[in-house]
Design brief:
It comes from Roseibium aggregatum. The protein has 259 residues and is an alpha/beta fold. Helices cover 47% and strands 14% of the residues. It is globular, with a radius of gyration of 18 Å.
C-alpha cells in the first residue's frame, strides 16, 4: 500500500532504539525524510547510518533530551516545518507511589505530559498553514489498566490523553489528526528490565518470568517494534485522515474489554 508519505518530513522523538526506532523505520520505508532523536550519540549515529543505507531518505539526527527546552529547540531547528510528529519519551522508572517526592513527580509529568504538549504547540501552526498534519503520541496500555510501579508514568500519560481529547477536535478541520498508540507488552529494553525486577522479587529466573507473562497474553507473545512502527506509519498516512482522537491498543488482546 502506498501511504502517500514520500517527501513528507517527520520528527520522531526517542527514535534511536525500541518503539521509536520502529516508527522511524516504517516512516523511512514510506519515503519520509526524518529527524531522529536520542540521548546516546553513538547509538543514534548507528541508527541514522542504517536507515539511510536501507531506505535512501534524508535523515538528520539530534542527540538531546527532548524534555528540555534546548532539546526541543534543536529538533525544531533541524526540521522547522514537520508534517509528522511522533511524540515518544522514556518514562519514570518503576517506583512505589509512596516513594515519589515532589521533584520526581514533576520530572515525570514533564517527560510524559508537558513535553509532548509543548512540541504539539510548536508544530501545529505550520501544519495548519499547509492543511496537513499527523501527530502520533506513544503512550501506554497503563492509561487503561494499572501496571505495578508505574503509577507516575500512567498518570502523566493519562493526563496527556485527556488534554488532547479536546485539542484533536479543534485541529481536525485543518487536516491535522492526533492519535495515541498504546503499547502493551512489547519486546523492548523496558519490558526486559521489568523481567529482571520481577525475578529478583519472586526468586524465579528471568526466563520463567518471561514465559509466564507471555502466556498471559491472548496472542501468546510479546509485540515487536516493527509491527508497532507500521501501525504508526498508517496513522500518519493519507489513508488515515478520518481517524483522530483515538487510543489504539497494541497489546495482543491483553486488555479485556468489549468497547
Amino acid at each position: 500500500m502506498d501511504l502517500g508519505l514520500k517527501g513528507k518530513k517527520a520528527i520522531v522523538c526517542a527514535s534511536s532504539r525500541g518503539l521509536g526506532r520502529g516508527c522511524a523505520e516504517a516512516l523511512a520505508e514510506a519515503g519520509c525524510d526524518l529527524v531522529l532523536n536520542g540521548r546516546d550519540e553513538k547509538v543514534l549515529a548507528a541508527t541514522q547510518s542504517e536507515l539511510e543505507e536501507r531506505f535512501g531518505v534524508s535523515i538528520q539526527r539530534v542527540a538531546a533530551d527532548v524534555s528540555t527546552r534546548a532539546g526541543q529547540d534543536a529538533l525544531l531547528s533541524a526540521c522547522p516545518a514537520p508534517d509528522i510528529l511522533v511524540n515518544n519519551n522514556g518514562g519514570p522508572p518503576r517506583r512505589d507511589f509512596a516513594d515519589l517526592d515532589r521533584d520526581a513527580m514533576l520530572e515525570g509529568t514533564i517527560q510524559n505530559f508537558v513535553t509532548p504538549v509543548e512540541l504539539i504547540q510548536a508544530v501545529v501552526p505550520g501544519m495548519k498553514e499547509r492543511g496537513f498534519g499527523r501527530i502520533v503520541n506513544i503512550t501506554s496500555i497503563s492509561v487503561k489498566m494499572p501496571i505495578e510501579g508505574l503509577d507516575l508514568s500512567s498518570g502523566a500519560r493519562a493526563s496527556l490523553t485527556a488534554f488532547l481529547a479536546g485539542v484533536c477536535r479543534q485541529l481536525a478541520p485543518h487536516g491535522i489528526t492526533v492519535n495515541n498508540l498504546l503499547p502493551g507488552k512489547m519486546d523492548t529494553d523496558r519490558l526486559r528490565g521489568g523481567f529482571e525486577r520481577s525475578a529478583k522479587l519472586s526468586g524465579r529466573s528471568k526466563e520463567e518470568v518471561r514465559a509466564q507473562q507471555a502466556a498471559e497474553i491472548p496472542a501468546r507473545r510479546f509485540g515487536n517494534a516493527e509491527e508497532f512502527g507500521q501501525a504508526c506509519a498508517f496513522l500518519c498516512s493519507q489513508h488515515a485522515g478520518y481517524i483522530t482522537g483515538q487510543n489504539i491498543l497494541m497489546d495482543g488482546g491483553l486488555f479485556p474489554a468489549a468497547f
